[in-house]
Design goal:
Arc Repressor Mutant, subunit A; single chain; mainly alpha; about 210 residues; Tetracycline Repressor, domain 2
Amino acid sequence: MNIVQDESRRDRKKLQRRALLIEIARRYIASKGLISLRVRDVAEAAGCSIGSVYNEFGDFDGLILTVNRETVQALTARLKAIPAGDPLRQLHGLADAYLGFATEHANLLRALFEHRMEDDRPFPDDILAMVMDAFALMHAPLVRLLPDRDPDDVALLSRMMFSAVHGIISLGLEERMVAVPPEMLRERLAEFVDTHLAGLGVSRSA
């Protein structure tokens, strides 16, 4: 085996180990929540040292952030799949898709919003931008429904609307504090969207 082949083999093993570490961390978070995640457990499950985890991701935050990036990418892909033909249907579809994702991946979504960086370091700008891009998907249909509204106002309204949808879903799925019974979430969420739009002067038949 020559030097080039040896380096290529090491690179492949490194990529495979990185993917394995991410998958193990994702499974821990998905099944038991972020609070259950321990670097020692991840290293042991992957058959490597704790130092190898740190070498790969810089620190434990780096591993969690990598999982969170994958979560927001998957969420955004789910939301972008909603048809954009009818703006009212799109808004309802976005809310319903968010509920579906949150129901299926509750702990991963919580980890995205609940993770706090060690030593009070700032949260990475790229993840903040990714989350804002996901929330901004409500902007385009609102622009179509509110053509005469100030653009800056519509941008703020879209973020507020998605924040409200997120809050309703998060509390509805929270086992310790059920604001809305889970079996009623889909219906109540649709009612919220209609009521919110009605307050903005948009009728259900728009």
